[in-house]
Amino acid sequence: MNAQIKKFVAILSAIVAMSLFVAACSTPSVDQPASPVVTQQIVPMEVAEPEPVDHQGVFLRIIGPLDEERVYCLDIPGHRSGMRLETPMQALTRKHGIWNLDGRFDSAALVNSQVRMPEYELCLEADSASAGASLGLADCGDAETQTWMLQDSSEFALAASQQLCVTIEEGPGIDAGGPQYVRRGGRLETCFPQASDRQRWTTAVPQ
User: In the chain, which residues have pLDDT < 50?
Assistant: First the structure.
């Protein structure tokens, strides 16, 4: 009888142990909160738009149209092989769609007080620092008659004599060798409000 009881207890203990084991294996574990998935956000690099750089120069044109609705620009007399670099500068109808390096000025040099023509490596120079002086081209240097400033009111004046401005002469334009273009003379004159339509300048991009 004792042997049977011992055997029964052993079997019961084994069953209980097995039940506990199965329960332990089947009990769902408590989920720990999942760590947030860290993703690296790719932020596009902001690239500044490059400022336009003009490698070929700009026109210097009078602001007012005067008698030429296409406006006048500072220019060298002649054309291509007939260029007359030793002749005083003129104001000519703005060139469009044709060769025009004889009317282009270095925009960077303008900031540094020089009116330079990159095609010829020459700079605008007044014949003298006096009213009525002609305007021509010369080797670039630091002469007072070659140092200019663009005033707030848009006149180009000699830096050392700011009362003297680059001026288009009065009167109607004359034929410049064809029906498409007319010209006027240019010289240094006293800056004068009544002459502002012939003395105020700006730059223009060649086309």
Answer: 1-12, 14-54
Q: What element of type H or E holds 63?
A: none
Q: Is 162 helix (H, G, I), strand (E, B) or coil?
A: coil
- Structural element, H or E, at residue 18: helix 2-26
- Answer CATH for 59-204 from 2.60.40.150, 3.40.640.10, 3.10.20.30, 2.80.10.50: 2.80.10.50
Q: Report the pLDDT value the prediction gives residue 79, as an integer from 0 to 100.
A: 81
CA-wise closest residue to 60 among 114, 6, 4, 133: 114
Q: Which of 95, 110, 101 is nearest to 159 (CA)?
A: 110
The predicted pLDDT at position 35 comes to 47
Q: How far apart are CA 152 and CA 167, in angstroms?
A: 16
Length, in residues, of the chain: 207
Give the β-pairing of 182-190 and 201-204: unpaired
**d(C-alpha 14, C-alpha 83), whole Å:** 118
